[in-house]
Amino acid sequence: MSSQKYSIMGSKYSFIQHMLLSLLGAFIRYFPKPKLQRKQPRYKVKGDGRFYGLLRNGAVVLPCNNDWIWSLTPTLVGFRQGDYFGIYSALEARVIYAPELVAAIPFFKEQDACNRKRMTQARFKFKNKLFVETKAYMESHMGLLWQGDRLFVKGPSGVLVVYRWGEVREYQGENPALAAYKLDQLCLYEDTNKQVKKSQLKAFPFLTRVDEEIAGQRTFRALSPQNFRYSATSNPVKVKAALTESKWLETECKKFNYHAIPAGIKEKFLSHLSHYFKCSKNEWLVEVLIYITWCHANGYVRYDAQGYCTLHPLYALQPEIAERIRCVTTLYVTHELDALEYLLYLPSSINSYLEVLAQQN
Asked: Are 133 and 214 in contact (CB under 8 A)?
């Protein structure tokens, strides 16, 4: 009896075990074990407050020598050095384009009313307003630069197209020259509501010929040294003819003496001009700039309608110096000498520079 009982119970437990195993098999079949996913690399931007680099799982993939790092697409990273940027691919874990792609964009802002008398930057006209040109970088205005799913950039070998899905190709359009021209013409400007908008450079013409020269002379540096002397024109007949032709008003003639200018005033000029060139290697140019400023301070300069200045014929530079300088206006404006005019005003009644008198008192 008892053996029969154990036999029945054993078959009962065997049946339950079979059912549990069947259910477990069905569960595994309908809910398979998830595949192990590959761990995604972690990227981190690291910087010292001035330059930035990129880390991949703690290892340096972009050294800390970039002005900015930003995400072009979910898989492409842009890194800028100066006016140029490169592209790093997170999928390939390598730099696919060196920082040779153009990142700087001309940016026009309306000229500040308080600085309109000081023409230290080239001026442009747009919609009856005056603008000055500054510089912007593409990472700050990506929303304006994307054209649908494409971003056009210019490199040393031509135009490249960056796609939002992370692909970069060379431009394959029918007219690559036209695409490059459009990129060269691209600029940004700030409207009256401080909103940044896109435009073209041809929409911002120079206000005068002088402004055009200022823009071209911004990279002006000191010319090769050469000795020179200032001297008034020696022929009185030519002087009289020149005065009559230019219709100069009668002015009191003051004598310019470079060596009589106080050392304190010269030091201020040297401090100012050192931002533009090495004064110790270009002493002759320092003297030229001081002389031109002296002429402005004492009323021996006249400006025409186009913004060009002319020195009084009695104080004209020697021909060989004038030929090397080419344009007195550009030289004066690019070195921002109007800020130092007050130092060189020479009152005839006192025959001493006001800056020196102020220090004495």
From this structure: no
